[in-house]
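Morning run. Coffee first, then this:
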Amino acid sequence: MASTTFWIIFAVCVTACIPILLFYAKRSPNPRFRPKIGEVALAGLLLVALSFGFSLGMTSIFGIDEVFDGMQKHKPGGSSRAPEATPEDDDDE
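And here it is:
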């Protein structure tokens, strides 16, 4: 499960993206030159993806490793594999 800090940063970023998206949707006074609903939806998805990446980056910068520990557990073959034995030096003197 992701950390609370990640979700707080993500919520702030998404909240900050809403006015940007509204400005993009209503930027032209002439309705014929405004973007269509599909373009606004695509811009919204892009902003949410950028917010997700920014939030992951900020949580890693601040040293919160709960997010990345959770990702390590879900790697294929991550925790179920036995650790490989490290070769030791055999000094026969």
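The chain has one domain: 4-72. Good start to the day.
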